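Model: Ready when you are.
Researcher: Fold this.
Model:
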Amino acid sequence: MTIVNRYLAFQVLMGLGIATAVLLPLFSFLDLLDQLDDVGKGTYRVEDAFLHTALLLPRRFVQLAPFITLLGNVIALGRLAVNSELTALRVAGISPIRISLAPLGVGLILLLFIAVLEQFVAPQLQQRAISSRAVALDKSAALGKHLGIWTRDERNIVRIGEMLHAKKAVDIEVMHFDDNGFLLTYTYAKYADLVADGLWELGDVTIKTFAGQRIESMSKASMSWRSFLNPDDISTLTKSPESLSPIELFLHVRFLRATGQEADAYALALWRKAGGALTTIAMLLLSIPFVFGSVRAGLGNKLVLASMLGISVYLLDQIIANAGLLLHLNPAFTALSPGLLLIILANFWLRRIF
């Protein structure tokens, strides 16, 4: 039985490899075409477009993992069915459930691999890709050129025009309010050095104080300011939710909620990472009835049906995620519901087949 399990696992791994070799280059080629449109702008060159696409490969693999799982398992089990190997295994007394354990075991290993990519590889490479592209195109990596980075806590609103690097900011505005929401002081600094955790050294400063009907203005060459932002918070603010690791997302969501800011987009991005794992499991379960439930259909027909299912699931996931943000639905419900629905569907289908 161990030999059979190893053989089945090897076939599933081969199927996953074939699916990866088809889907990942295809979507990376589309990424490359998109990047080539910007070649010639600023200092962005063809080499930069290829590098950007290469750095996004781990992120694309994570995004495509559910569909790679579906097609890979259909390819693996479909080949066994076409070669009558599944029939031989059934005649030998091995049940479909027992045969399905090998793909499930490979799927769990795949999920562990994806978790490592999601935490330690994909976010870092994606952030490097975004940063290098922004520098070459002379664009801000935050909200757009000249818009800056905005954040707040209970009594302060801060705008950072641009982060030159992790310890240097330019074009800073700080608005300080009282408990009733009235503006007390407005501070503008041309630049700031982050000298310690939460301590900023502002340079070329203008301070306006609002006292009743009077507005007092004063200038300083430099001054210290105790910020509610630490370097990690600033670094996170300049990154898109998708490019953050699960731990970074969790900490940033906690920071946003602690300071009374809108956190739904980042919370949804965090829960969608868990939702992606559920969808991968669901796709793995759905691939099994494709093979055992359609014995007369050829491998080509099974792959076409699996591809249609994958496209439908992708569109459904995108629609639910955007609708959830628009309607302010619970991020956990929005992110996990597609995967849970697919697992229920797969369970119902498996019961009918087996």
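Researcher: Now this one.
Model:
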Amino acid sequence: MSFSINRTGGVRPGLSAVVLVLSVALTGCGGGTDSAGGARSSAVGTAAPAATSGTTQARPSRPSADTGTSGSADSARLPGLGPRTLAAIPAKARQVVLVTGRGRNSPISEVALYRRTDTGWAPGAEWPAHNALRGWTDDHHAGDLRSPIGVFALTDAGGLLADPGSKLPYDRSGGFTTVGTGFEGEPLAGSFDYVVAINYNREPGTSPLDWTRPLGAGRGGGIWLHVDHGGPTHGCVSLAQRHMKELLLTLDPAQHPVVVMGDATSLTR
């Protein structure tokens, strides 16, 4: 499959939207293996073995070596996070999407928004969510049906629907069409109406549809925040459509937003 980058950085299907739709449906949340090129940076956090120089993968079990850490006084106000998880949050991050899984093997989670103020982290909206069918892992691989644990930047968005007013770069494309049914027989149509790419094994500054995998295809990819279809995901985190729209209106690249995600026990490290 071939792709082209549009003038605003979005990816347009080169052969057929139908081919891309089938690829997305078969590989989960946009998790393909082809490379389309893009920016030259990666996920926020601790370096992990990578296929491309400069690529990093955040993990709560180890502090960030190159991004700086949050001050202990205000980061302590992020509930349920242990010292190693807190240390992985970059000092420049002023918006946090905290995804707390109900259990290591559970597909149920809760999302809470926080913004950094002069006096600490101020809580915002809280929403129910789904994560991967088999829960969570700090060593994610393609097809394991677990969501990756870690701290990851949020830099790019897109969807099948028109941009609702996102401050993040937004790629509207028919490539976000998806079909079929989920693990519980629920229809998947509309799942990618709104999407925020999670910078796990992807190139920031590109459309969520970009299939570049700096850590290699075997480490998975296409991990998104997207519209909930009423059941577990392949690896993504899903929210009700109205909540995804609110998230898109809230996230501001000038505030360097990150997602902190994992099961509750792992996040206490």
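Researcher: Key takeaway?
Model: The helical segments are 17-27, 72-75, 83-87, 241-250, 264-267.
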